[in-house]
Amino acid sequence: MATLNAPETNPTDIYEHILEREERDTQAVAVGLDSLVKTIGSVVMWANVLLIAAIVSQVTLRYLFDLNFPKLDEIQWHFYGLVTMVGISYALVTDSHVRVDLLHMQLSARARRVIEIIGILALLVPFIYLMVDQGYDYFYESWRVNERSDSPTGLPARWALKAVIPVSFVLLGLAALARLIHDVHALYTNYEDERQGKGLRLIVWAVIGFALVATALTFLVETTEEKLVIAMFLTFIALLFTGFPVAWTLAGVGVAYCGIAFLFDNGMMNWTGLEETLTGLDYLTLGAVVNRVYATMSNAVLVALPMFIFMGLMLDESGVAERLMTSMQRLFGTVRGGLAITVTMIGIILAASTGIIGASVVLLGVLSLPSMIEQKYNPSLAAGVVSASGTLGILIPPSIMLVIMADQMALSVGDLFMAAVFPGIIIGGLYLTYIFIIALVKRDVAPAPEGATRPDWAAVKDVLIAVLPTLGLILAVLGSIFAGLTTPTEASGIGAFGATLLALGYRKLTLRKLVNVLKSTFNTTAYIFAIFLGATVFSYVLRELGGDELIEAMIHGTGLGPNGTVIAILFIVFLLGFVLDWIEITLIVLPLMRPIVNGLGLDIPGFDAIDEPSLVWFVILVAVTLQTSFLTPPVGFALFYLKGVCPPEIKLMDIYKGIIPFVLLQLTGLALVFLWPALATWLPSVAY
User: Which residues contact 457 (CB under 8 A, 6 or more apart)?
Assistant: First the structure.
């Protein structure tokens, strides 16, 4: 009787099959975590619509029915807190966080994954643990006493909003785990195409260089605390060049130096030869940042951030820029440099609506650069016009940067908006004047298009139809703030609602476009808020180490006098603008300058109407300086935004050459505001 023998099984095949199955299961876990975070984010982002509805309802009830509901105020910042806290994990899985790409973009995908793995484990995980652990205690204490609003007519169950802190960081932990799994799997699989690019040697040498600089600078100060302050700041700068997200670099460095300070406090670092410290920093004192995070979540001023972002993005989606470009080209078609003048004017209008530099530069570049090249514009002039016009959004109100500056410097948002009007108009006017003159003097750099017809009344009508609704919305938003009819937060909600109505009126609004705007608003607000979180930890530890006293002593020690000190500060901000985004400078550096500027005794005209005119003037100077640093080669952020969308005919050197005249024009505008402070302080003084 024959027997049937089973085929022999190769143990190697079994092992490979098990590995393949484990690999599939691992990837499935990562994909599942990604999907969970994205699904939650896709639901929560609709809270922005509810936020708009709450603001519009509040203003409507007050002016039409003379009714006021304090609960609506608290509902607004509850929505804001929910959106921002959940958004940080959504931004992580979609890789939307801000990073310094100067070296990072040259690395291979494999090297980037190694950096992300190390960064998550060494910088992000300790911060997540701190916020989950201390955040839970913070929530539990609120729940235990059944905490409610400070206002007797406010919302009950305040603990519910505080519960968002630990829950959102658990969600962030899941998002970080998903990124880790993806990265480790890719490293294990060893894809050949991920090896293209430079290795980690570039980053290692950069970090070593900063370490040597930090070591040298520590010899300039005496106390251990001062040495730690210098080392902490330079560690942050060095790690930025790895390309790890700025927000988590700030947070991780803050947590790490809290631990180092604890070791110095307790005599565990005597082997370094440095003296012991008395900073008082430890795990529990660092937990105090949870309360600061809650204060940021419930900040009524910052509610305006997502609303102004939504307003600008919705105006972009409504096709306003395309309409303006088409109609204005007809109006200025026969003028030499007419297209460049058109781009600058649209940049000014977008600045008063978008307020986001990256969005403005990219949009203007996509819309205008191909036409400029076709009309035989000089590539340098074309690139310079687009870059400079796109950066006006950081200064011209309603600028989201000014909103954050007002919050950090304890100033009125309305005062800063009004203070920025004349400087913004002056710089925009300098741009237009330069373009008009250069087109007349050098006829080949900005020729008029061939076959262009003289503008007629139909062209004027098209411009009015394109411009008036947008200008009407902008004037309604700014006018209501300037007239004292609404707060900046209320005006931002009205602006978001008005931009949506404009998109409907232009028949451009679809469900898909609304979702795109909500996603972009969600991501943009989230990465800004994430930097808020990181800066909160970083600045807390920096201050406990005595960083503010050290900086104040160093600046006062220069002996430059009041005006010289202001110039020195602006120069430092200008240099920092090469490597730091405006958000980090606003959140970390600017608050440190407040006591210094207050102590200079500057005689700035306030016209008996502004409480702190010197601070208002100083903040506007910083804003103009940051705008200039965005344009300055070799690492101006706006230049890289433009390089990503410009035609191949325009080289990076063309961008560098083209931007130089506009940098000089901005420095001229800065000098005018410095010499005549009333350009910044007069309008706020007469507004109310």
Answer: none
Tokens 């004017």 belong to residue: 345
Higher pLDDT, 320 or 544: 544
CB 570 within 8 A of CB 282: no
Does the pTM of the predicted model rise above 0.85? yes
In this structure, are residues 343 and 383 in contact, taking their beta carbons and an 8 Å threshold?
Answer: no
Nearest partner of 341 among 435, 466, 426, 427, judged by Cα = 435
With beta carbons less than 8 A apart as the criterion, state whether 71 and 205 touch: no
Work out the number of other CB atoms within 10 angstroms of the CB of residue 6: 5
Beta bridge partners, 198, equal 107
Instruction: Please state which of the ranges 14-18, 58-62, 359-363, 365-369 shows the lowest mean pLDDT.
Output: 14-18
Q: Is 501 helix (H, G, I), strand (E, B) or coil?
A: helix
Burial code (b: 16+ CB inside 10 Å, e: under 16) for 61-72 equals: ebeeeeeeeebb
The closest of 357, 353, 380, 354 to 369, measured between CA atoms, is 380
Cβ atoms 175, 33 nearer than 8 A: yes
Say if residues 462 and 381 touch (Cβ distance below 8 Å). Answer: no
Residue 221: burial class (beta carbons within 10 Å; 0-12, 13-18, 19+): middle
Decide: helix, strand or coil at residue 317: helix
For the chain, the C-alpha Rg in angstroms (whole number) is: 27
**Residue 118, both tokens:** 């190390």
Return d(Cα 365, Cα 377) in angstroms, integer: 14
Per the document, the length of the chain is 688
